[in-house]
Amino acid sequence: MPIPVESLTHSSDEYIHIPLSSLKKATIRSSSDFRSDVVTVPTPEVLEAMVNATFHDEIYEGDATIAALESKMAKMAGKEAAMWVVSGTQANQISLRTHLHQPPHSILCDHRAHIYCWESGAISVLSQAQCTPVIPRNRRHLTVHDIAHSMIPDGNIHFAPTKVISLENTLSGTILPLAEAQRIRQYALNHPNKPKMHLDGARLFDAVVAEGVSLTDYCDNFDSVSLCIQKGTGAPVGSMIVGDKPFIDRAKWYRKMFGGGARQPGMLAAAGIAALDQALPLIALTQHKAKLVSEYLTMELGLKLSVPTETNMIVLDLEEAGIPPRVFRHRLFQFGVRVFDQGRLVFHNQISDQGVSALCQGVKSLVIDARIPNKLDQLDQEIEYTESLSQN
Ligand SMILES: *Cc1c(COP(=O)(O)O)cnc(C)c1O
Fold first, then answer.
1. Is the pTM of this model over 0.85?
2. Are 267 and 54 in contact (CB under 8 A)?
């Protein structure tokens, strides 16, 4: 018999139907938070799923809710097996470590790849691997030509042969098309190194919805895929690795070794299942909103983008617009909107219409002020000064 969440709380608010006051605050905050899609918070449905989860020790005996999530994800991705882990970083690093055996070896990836730039240098520590970071010639995504040009063959003692090709989709919100992934896969299968293929698919759901291709067709081209079940979903924690059964069985050793064995993760798996069920059908709508705002910012306000808006991200070229990054963040905060300095705006399904409208008004005010000589630079200095005072 499921326990209703309301019975666990002291008061219930009829208006927003979120009974916990700190969660209510977090929900309101996320409705105008464009920093990332990691800011989504649990909905009442997600909370209810959590309290009705199973509470077995996953290491001693396995947990039924974890097993349910793993089989759901394996099925969705068209793979034999899946494994739950805490984070996307853990999913990527366990996958890469599982593919690699004895150094010297190297991993080929985009020069902006999360595995290379944003994971604490883990590849060199955990896998003793060298990276070959590649700048895509089309400035958007790696192609089979980029890969072929940068592969390090086996057999020459000066070089660490490429043993893994690691791709990322989406990357800064842009898509690596299915047809390109298939060409790279064909190339890899015919290469004498027999490189494994890993996909950092933290936002793969976004990519396949936007491209209109199937998740299983996409995952078909990879030996392992990491998928985030937290970003944009409202689950508090979690990523999945999918692959064949021997790979996942081996990966379990590394999960334990890297401190990722969890005692009672059933609640987290329950949150993941409920959050995915709620969030996946909303992806197309969220992307549509991002597209509309992107059109407003470019066509109406005349701003330029650093990369095209293909999924849930708008990346503004602030430098071209003469908007100092600090002023961007500061001004939008005055409009009640949270952003990071760099001009990246990430949409998720918990953004409200008021949040979108405040964002548009805030950016418009910046575009108007940027026409007044020195105004924003002066403001930038003032903010730098005030912020340096509050730091001391
Ligand atoms: C968010 C993200 C990850 C993993 O992030 P964690 O914070 O470790 O969960 C990995 N790759 C990409 C492309 C990401 O966007």
1. yes
2. no
